[in-house]
Amino acid sequence: MTTNGSLLSGEVNLMSNAVDGVTPPFLDLRDIVIKHGDRTAVDGVDLTVAPGEFLALLGPSGCGKSTLLHVLAGLRRAHSGELRLNGSPAAADLSGKLRVGYVFQDHRLLPWRTVAQNITIAMKSAGVPKDEWDARIDRYLGMLRVGEYRDSWPMRLSGGQRQRVSIARALAVDPDVVLMDEPFSGLDEVTARAMRLELSRLREVSSVPTVFVTHSIKEALFLADRVVTLSHGPARVLKELSVSLPRPRQYEDPEFARLEASVVADVLKEWELTDAAPGAPERRAS
Ligand SMILES: Nc1ncnc2c1ncn2[C@@H]1O[C@H](COP(=O)(O)OP(=O)(O)OP(=O)(O)O)[C@@H](O)[C@H]1O
Ligand SMILES: [Mg+2]
To answer: PROSITE patterns, per this entry (predicted)?
Structure first.
């Protein structure tokens, strides 16, 4: 991942630090606007991530999901808005305050380094003490069930195995937050289903707050504690939905199907409305 060198800036208005006795959100973004040059990519998004929460960001292609994730990672500056970390106003340099485990759509493993070496590079850059490297590599590759590929070249692995390694790499830095940008969208549906189940299983032993970007309603409902649906770009929040279905979830569960149908109805209505009337005033769903 490349940084653009501009982190959350002084242009972000910082809120007061009043905490009202309730555990504050881990991350709290309010009215965040992000621009690429003169073009607005994210247009006034409010978003919270609770401690330990798995949040899905669901939105159409090009709506600004990755851009928003880059701000959460401290890799891009917000043009305006307010941001808090654990209840405290976040200073300009968010990346110095959060250890981020990032999982991309493509695995981004270095082909000329073994699986273990790829994970080592991430741990080294995150400042993990050297005497912990070996144990962490074994632990996380084991958790992701790819321990046998420790000394393999990434190109000898299947797409699903590479994504398992890339999740292990994200977890091995002992992240404060995991950010996943459509990590399974390049996989066939059978492998993607297996990976979702794996991730769901991992949540039983690791409760690192996670923001998971996806186009897939099924995927969002299968994985997330809460689903935030975004509009066509520039991204605005259309709806939020808490998902309290027991885990592991079943796609065929009637309640799952009911939720899916309701999200499909919301998404079709909102996304088609914007499509059907380009240039028309955009509106928020109530
Ligand atoms: N570096 C950049 N410079 C200028 N415009 C950009 C840049 N990166 C993204 N954009 C634009 O910002 C908008 C949002 O892009 P972004 O990559 O965040 O969307 P996305 O929701 O992640 O899309 P996808 O689902 O296809 O990955 C798009 O219109 C895109 O063309
Ligand atoms: Mg993207």
So the answer is: ABC_TRANSPORTER_1, ABC_TRANSPORTER_2
